[in-house]
Write a structure and sequence with these properties.
By secondary structure, the chain is mainly alpha-helical. It is 55% helix and 9% strand. Strand 4 and strand 5 form a beta hairpin. It is rod-shaped, with a radius of gyration of 28 Å.
Length: 179
């Protein structure tokens, strides 16, 4: 009987050790996989941010080189419709439309110190107050209050239309009064 008891004890201990080891290995594999996926996600986000900032810097350079095409016209008291009808705005926005097409970007918005989009390749955005929504106000805060030279937001819904998800980047333009 002693031999049977020792053999059963050995089998029970071996099975217990096997299942515990297998469970620990599985847990370790899950942790390593999770860590690797997190690292890959962060690397992709960093690369995306760098690429977006590089493209935005190129667009900033084009706007700064032709800054006379984007005068800071008087907007106080103007409705979005009045801003959209302004010939000054239309001329500047036409230039942004050309830049957007050349650089293959969906939007370029030029925001004044008051937080109003005064030039854009998307006519419906002219006159939009960037202080009016969480996503947009975050941009104004970072650019004008925190004095960030550049800023990249995470991918998410935009303030103008929450059904649209975008990732935006911005640079302060020369003079630091517009972005």
């Amino acid at each position: 009987w002693l031999l049977v008891a020792v053999v059963l004890g050995f089998i029970a201990t071996s099975n217990f050790t096997y299942f515990v080891s297998a469970r620990l290995n599985e847990s370790d594999a899950d942790s390593v996989l999770s860590l690797n996926l997190t690292d890959a996600k962060n690397d992709i986000e960093d690369t995306s941010d760098q690429n977006l900032l590089a493209l935005t810097a190129k667009i900033k350079k084009a706007i700064d080189a032709d800054s006379a095409s984007y005068p800071g016209y008087y907007t106080v008291g103007m409705t979005a419709k009045e801003m959209q009808d302004s010939s000054v705005q239309q001329a500047g926005s036409a230039k942004l439309t050309t830049i957007a097409a050349n650089e293959d970007v969906s939007e370029i918005n030029y925001v004044n110190r008051e937080g109003l989009i005064i030039y854009s390749n998307v006519p419906a955005y002219i006159g939009f107050n960037m202080n009016s929504g969480t996503q947009a106000a975050d941009f104004c805060w970072m650019m004008f209050n925190e004095k960030e030279e550049s800023y990249v937001q995470n991918y998410g819904p935009i303030s103008k239309d929450s059904s649209v998800w975008m990732k935006y980047a911005s640079y302060l333009l020369s003079g630091g009064e517009n972005f």
